[in-house]
Amino acid sequence: MDKVSVIVPVYNAENYLSKSIESLINQSHQSIEIILVDDGSTDDSLSICESYANQDTRVKVHSIKNSGVSAARNLGIDVATGEYITFVDSDDWTEIDMLEHAVANIKQTESDLVIWSYFKNYYNNEVKLSLIPGGDQVFDDDKSILYLKTIYGRYSEEEVTEGVSVGTTWCKLYKTDFIKKNSLKFNPSLTRAQDTIFSIYAFSYANRISFFDRNLYHYRISNSSTTSGTRFITDTHSPFNTLLDEYKLFIQEEGKNEKLQVAFNARTIQVLLWHLEHYYFHERYSKGVWSRRKEIKNLILSEPYKTALLEVDIKLLPKKEKTMTRLLKHKRILTFYFIVSLHSRVEKIRKRRFD
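-> structure tokens emitted (355 positions)
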């Protein structure tokens, strides 16, 4: 009764996996299945998963060749047998009463999905954050704030915060029938923010969404996080441009909406920075300085980056993206590159992370 399927994609998470799994095994809501999908890990993650499965029959292990987090989550959806589905990242952990509160809320409010708040956990610091401004609330017809803060997480913030997009995979409980009836799946061609596309359509299809502002999920900040890090990507154009195309399609389906366009421009600036971090400014980029400058210039003269640089509401951007926007508007590409390089060296010395 009220069984929850907890889907956990796993990839090379041996240092954090036990804490994540144990936070689920020890949930006060005991009617659960924990679906661990190992995505071709090369460390001891799979053996850790199997050891927990041997100890607790509620733990189910699936192993696939490395196909990405979206494929792992989609498999989890396919095999889920619970009345509800939630997602947890393998390097994060939860409060032991997370599912108890989530199930109670989704039943009380008769919602298709419920959302809650989280902690952002650094090496020696924990920050308590709300996923949606305004406290507890129910969304029936007007879901615009969910759309806006899914496309760009900092939208409507009076100050630039360290929050995440409302469209993040975790901190949500869905009715399984709702997911399957609407054929909701993650897009395997996306390498970042694939959760926001899943979420924005889930928000659109839902008749009712409830948010309760209780901090129950711990989002670990580390270079090996499922959703963070600066791995080298040789082709950033395909996944990042596809992501922006998905947002544009959703905005078109919603009709002309100036606020959505403002959020889209800000997200486009963020994605432009991803291009630089994952390829053009990455230490593994092997071409010379002038090739780097030429390729970036071609990128910023293409759409939607060209329009976003001209029209973005710069107040929405954090400091690094503000600096990038101001410099790239004037084609000061190498100046920004040297600023980023200096900043990266300072950060490596100053910051200690979980790694």
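The chain has two domains: 4-220, 237-350.
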